[in-house]
Each structure stands twice: as structure tokens, then as C-alpha cells.
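Record type: monomer structure entry
Structure origin: computed from sequence
Chain ID: A
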Amino acid sequence: MPAAIHIKMATPRKNKTASRRPARTLDPTISRRLEQAGLPQALPRGHNMLPRDVVQRSQRARINEAMAGSVAAKGYAATTVTDITGLAGVSRTTFYEQFRDKEACYLACFEDQIRYLINRVHAAIATQATPAGQFVQALAAMLDAAAAEPIYAHAFIGQATTVGPNALEALLDHKARIIRVLREIDARVPRGQRARARLPLEVFEMAMHGMYEFLSTEIRAGRAARLPQRLPHMCWLWFSALGLPQWAEAALASTPAALRRRDWSEEAPAADGPGG
């Protein structure tokens, strides 16, 4: 049975005169993000001297958390605006000031999450000087993000295809952005190191769809924490497809930790076939 993701949903208060919301504990992921962005984890009640943009960014981050938590726990269709505002600790007025409806909120949160992931991938690539090392670290960054933030992964990767055509389009756009990053790395592989011509875009697209189907299945099954252990297998698949069999075999023969540390600067696979 898939491992369940448990999110404690807020219970609406029946006392109409009560204005205080119950205390809530932020998910550690969102707490880290708020801290990194210099945002308060909770806003003072009533009038405060915080700049409006700080207030709105804090509210937006907590709404992101609430949307992800509710969708991961009970699915997009069953999630309501009341669920989101209760978990986020914001009013319905605040919610509708920022979003037209639940779908607009989901799509905006999806975009925020994808931007965050792309930034992680670029930061990982920047640590490496060789195409092989950049490819390994780009894939590792994607697997690590899903493992470190399973609620977000479940809500925005595992559930995206169930939301509707707009979310599916957003998911396809996300895959296209990752493909562009990987193709840029692939273009830096020296011609003489290839055993085959460069892959056309269509093959990259098929490989990416296959990889995301695997990721989505693992995430929905509650196995996101295991994904970093799949790094050697993921690298083998991509390196094999790219016509870099020696890199593929080196990746498959490595442990995940050793693969991350590997110095690829002296790796130069011999090529028997055409480059391109």
C-alpha cells in the first residue's frame, strides 16, 4: 500500500465573534523557505508596521504550503478554498485578493515550485566544470528536491495530471524547461567523445516523459525518499541514450554517493561512431 501523507486540516471555527485563528506549525520545508527569503513565519495580528510586499510574500508562501499540503493529503478535487485558508492562516478575502479561484492558486503555486526547482538545478550545474559532472548534478538536484520535499513533489508532480488541462500544460512546460537545460549541457560534450550523433529534440522529449512517469509513480507510492538512490540508474539511461556508453557504465558501477563526488575531468570516452 502507498505510504499515506498526513496533513492535519484546520476545523472551521463556529464562534462568529472569535477572530483569532488557532496556532499552526509550519511544515519544515516552508519554514526554511520563509527563513531563506527573510520572511516572517507568522504575521502579527491586527495593524503592523511590516511593508505590504513582505506581508503579501509571507501570505503567498503560506498559501503555497497550504495548497501543497491539502492536495498531497486529499487530492486536488477534494481540496477546498476553506482548506487552504485554514491551513495557511489567512482569510478568504486575502486569498481572493491574490488568486481568482482554486485552480489559479494551484497553477501559481506550481509555477513557484518549478521556478524553485529550476534554480536548484542551475545552482547544482554551476558547481561542475565538465558536461558529465553537470549532467549528474542536474539529475541529482531533481531527485534530491523530490526526496527533501515530498509534499510539494506529490502535489505538483504526482497530482498534476489529475487537475485539468491547464495544469497538464504547465507540467509539459516544466518538462520543456528541463529539456532545454539538459540539451545545453549535451551541446557542450566534445564531438570526439560521442559514439553516435546528438539526439534530436523528439527523443529528448520521449526520454523526459518516461523519466517523469517514473518519478510520478514513485512519488505517488510514497517512495520519494528513495529517489536519490536511483541516480546511477538515471545517469546510465541518459548517458546511454546520448551515445556516451563509457560514462553510462561508469555511472552504473558507482554508488550514488561516489557518483556525486566523481571527478569527470579526465574522462574521455572513445568514440567509434560519428559525432554531431
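Annotation 1: The mean pLDDT is 83.
Annotation 2: Residues 28-42+51-99 form one domain.
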